[in-house]
Amino acid sequence: MPPIQEGSKAPDFTAKDQDGKEVSLHEFLGQKVILFFYPQDNTPTCTVEACNLRDNYQALVRKGFVVLGISPDKEKKHQNFIKKYHLNYSLITDPDLIVHTLYGTWGAKQLFGRKYMGTLRTTFIIDEKGKIIKMIDKVVAKNHAAQILAALK
Question: Exactly one of 25, 46, 53, 87 is catalytic; which is it?
Fold first, then answer.
């Protein structure tokens, strides 16, 4: 599969949300979607990113967006994360890395000289027709909503 690029069709997927409900990207045709991939619930940077999107959720909704987060975490962990931080959007589970693979967001990383495989923190902004209009691969967790809104200008 060729790498995802801006202007390409967003790969469709079906996965479960925090409540075990199946969610498919094609259900959102006709709506704009912010699909953000993050490594893990309850880690410092992921929590800052999730809370920044929570705090700026209404600004994103006013621009017509649905917000969906996705990580390899399972349903119960997502439920706890949502409850603990009062998140106001759905989180999708991807423990088998199927969606990560479709979007090219699982890859080699390095931390303190140690190499490992993990989620490449990336956000896809998808238009009403299912086309990727913007990819943000240098996410600034504490200003992520502002990054998204600036990318739309």
Answer: 46
> Is 51 an annotated catalytic residue?
no
Query: How confident is the chain (153 residues) per 10-residue block, as mean pLDDT?
Result: 83 97 96 97 96 96 96 97 98 97 92 89 96 96 95 84
CATH number at residue 146: 3.40.30.10
d(CA 75, CA 144): 24
Residue 139 belongs to some domain of the structure: yes
Total domains, the chain:
1
DSSP bridge pairs for 125: 34, 134
pTM comes to: 0.94
Counting every residue, how long is the chain?
A: 153
Domain with 56 in it: 14-151
